[in-house]
Design a protein that fits this description.
The chain is of the alpha/beta class and about 425 residues long. It folds into three domains: about 160 residues, Beta Polymerase, domain 2 (2-Layer Sandwich), CATH 3.30.460; about 140 residues, 3-Layer(aba) Sandwich (Rossmann fold), CATH 3.40.50; about 45 residues. It has 16 helices and ten strands. The protein has a six-stranded parallel sheet with strand order 7-6-5-8-9-10, covered by helices on one side. A four-stranded antiparallel sheet has the order 2-3-1-4, with helices on both faces.
Length: about 425
């Protein structure tokens, strides 16, 4: 059986590549089912976030080459153009990788908690799509338990560090006082909610939440005494915004250069600080060319984030020890499945011998043979048939000098030689 993960992340690929292989909510179910049709793939989960796209697969003959080719073709790319950015982990390394990802040790922000929710969502989506079986189901549940243990037993989550926190920290560097400012938050997911919370803690004057579903925007805006609008209303309200932070799952940009240019004119070129956390990007890259616009992407936040990580390094080392242990536990369970199959086959063989011998013994009794004689026949025949194959194999091992097999048999049968 093959267990592997193939993917790319913020350390191996720039945002321009990551956004080209992302899986939005509207296509991920179809992609999961298409992935399980790849030769050798029996189970699959797709994890696609701002910072990573990863394909988790299990099957009898899952091939990283075939899966990599599928990923490129699905997104209309040439495999040779995508391959330099990909990594592949198999077996125990794949297990270790997922446990590190779920625990936040493989994130742009070390120990950030949002990734666990994203991993759970990826598993739930794949489960609903029918592409999760016994192995990946057990593996992902194991990753959730491991992440919980890491959070409980270490201080990995004590410092308020996240992409949202980094975005707000950067805005504080540009605007010393957020009290008189207005922030436009585009999207209504977990990252935007966290961003709103950090902005409120920093004393932001006013929050506007824009979302495709206005009802959801209202729900979020109410928590922070903000104002909700639909995406189509953004051009009308953009001139009010001193800070724009966007994180949606839109496959195309929401803010274009022309819209931002018009907003700047209405503001009389009063600067706007923008952070585009989304992948694919919500804000056209050309917006960066405009004067009085300070546009940052998730990749630009890395330097800000690094300054907030020192307190988490020791906790990360402790977490790594937990992950190593939990990874070994899962691999032990996985290896035990081979033993389960072997035991079932052996018991089936013994059951067949028992039934055949029992029938003969019952026929003997029915034909007048004394019960004691029939029982002796049953015991002797059953013992001989059950021991025949192991005995002949052990004799062969002895004559051919297979000492390891003899020692294994001694351990297996608990013999006192």
């Amino acid at each position: 059986m093959s267990l592997l993960v193939l993917g790319l992340n913020h350390t191996t690929a720039p945002v321009e590549i990551r956004e080209r292989v992302s899986f939005g909510p509207d296509i991920v179910v179809g992609a999961l089912r298409a992935l399980t049709e790849v030769e050798g793939v029996g189970e699959s989960v797709i994890l696609s976030t701002c910072n990573r796209t990863e394909l988790y697969c299990h099957g009898n003959d899952a091939s990283s080459e075939r899966i990599g080719r599928w990923l490129a073709e699905f997104h209309g790319l040439k495999q040779e153009d995508l391959s330099p950015y990909l990594y592949v982990h198999e077996g125990e390394k794949a297990v270790d990788h997922l446990l590190r990802v779920a625990s936040g040790l493989n994130s742009l922000v070390l120990g950030e908690p949002q990734i666990l929710g994203q991993v759970k969502q990826a598993w739930q989506t794949a489960t609903s799509a029918g592409t999760v079986g016994k192995i990946l189901g057990r593996l992902f549940q194991h990753s959730f338990a491991t992440a919980k243990q890491v959070r409980t037993d270490t201080a990995i989550g004590d410092s308020p560090v996240s992409v949202a926190f980094a975005a707000v920290s950067l805005s504080k560097q540009i605007f010393a006082d957020l009290t008189p400012l207005t922030a436009l938050l585009i999207g209504a997911g977990e990252t935007i909610e966290l961003t709103a919370r950090h902005l409120q803690q920093q004393g932001i004057g006013r929050i506007i939440v824009a979302n495709r579903t206005v009802t959801r925007a209202h729900e979020l805006a109410e928590q922070f005494h903000g104002f909700a609008i639909g995406l189509t209303e953004i051009p009308a309200h953009l001139p009010e915004a001193d800070i724009v932070i966007s994180s949606t799952a839109s496959p195309v940009p929401i803010l274009g250069k022309g819209t931002v240019e018009s907003a700047l004119k209405a503001r009389r070129h009063k600067p706007i600080f923008m952070v585009d956390i989304a992948v694919p990007r919500d804000i056209e890259a050309e917006v960066r060319e405009l004067q009085d616009i300070y546009l940052y992407t998730v990749d630009d936040l890395e330097e800000v984030i690094q300054e907030n990580l020192r307190s988490r390094q020791q906790a990360a080392e402790q977490a790594a020890e937990i992950i190593e242990q939990r990874s070994a536990e899962f691999m032990a369970w996985l290896r035990s499945l081979d033993a389960v199959s072997l035991i079932q086959s052996y018991r089936g063989q013994a059951e067949s011998i028992k039934q055949e011998t029992l029938k003969k013994a019952l026929r003997m009794v029915a034909n007048g043979t004394p019960a004691e004689e029939a029982l002796k026949y049953l015991a002797n025949t059953l013992t001989n048939k059950l021991l025949h194959t192991p005995s002949s194999q052990l004799r062969e091992a002895g004559s051919s000098g297979q000492k390891e097999l003899l020692e294994a048999a001694n351990t297996l049968f608990q013999l006192d030689r």
